Amino acid sequence: MQSRLLAAAVALALITVAAPAAAAGPRGPLDARTLAAVGSRFGQLMEAANRHDLAALGAMYWQSPSTLLVAKSAVPSEGNWAGYWGNEAIERKLHDIAASGPVVLEPDLSKLKVVGLTREVAESYAPVTITVSYAGQDGTPRPFLIIVDWIRSGRDWKIASEIILPVPSAPAVKS
What gap in Å lies between CA 142 and CA 128, rounded to an integer? Predict the structure, then answer.
């Protein structure tokens, strides 16, 4: 039931956001229906992540050694955040994150933006609050940006790159 509600909210947000944007600006390489389909895929990504459905997540990624996930690292030699290239590395990373405990992604669908870069590539952007206890994170909900590059694969859209960026705290104001 909850996933149906999220899917309906994604569809409503896309209809509300995509129609005015398409009418207001120059025409891009993808029509509003295609942009809405990519936005729906973003909603499916959030649902699968919240269910810890690793099979569904793995199926969403483009099958290529060039596929990229940028996420929190648990290995000090990689730095705090790292890029994971190729499907095997991404599957390992997603497994490690899911095994760390509850993971909750709450996207702000009112700010979801999907644009066509070419007829075969689209990009989505959304602020997302993520609650996770992985690699030293304490399970406190924190703001992130998720930027996904999608590539057309047959009749479907697959994740070519997913970049999860933490939003830093605002600097303290000196008085």
Answer: 8
Query: Which tokens is 13 given?
Result: 């947000």
Question: pTM of the entire structure?
Answer: 0.81
Q: Where are the domains of the chain?
A: 2-166
CATH topology assigned to domain 2-166: Nuclear Transport Factor 2; Chain: A, (3.10.450)
pLDDT digits (tens, 9 = 90+) for 99-150: 888 889 999 999 999 999 999 999 999 999 999 877 666 778 999 999 999 9
Per-residue H/E/C for the chain = CHHHHHHHHHHHHHHHHHHHHHHHCCCCCCCHHHHHHHHHHHHHHHHHHHHCCHHHHHHHECCCCCCEEEEECCCHHHCCEEEEECHHHHHHHHHHHHHCCCEEEEECHHHCEEEECCCCEEEEEEEEEEEECCCCCCCCCEEEEEEEEEEEECCEEEEEEEEEEECCCCCCCCC
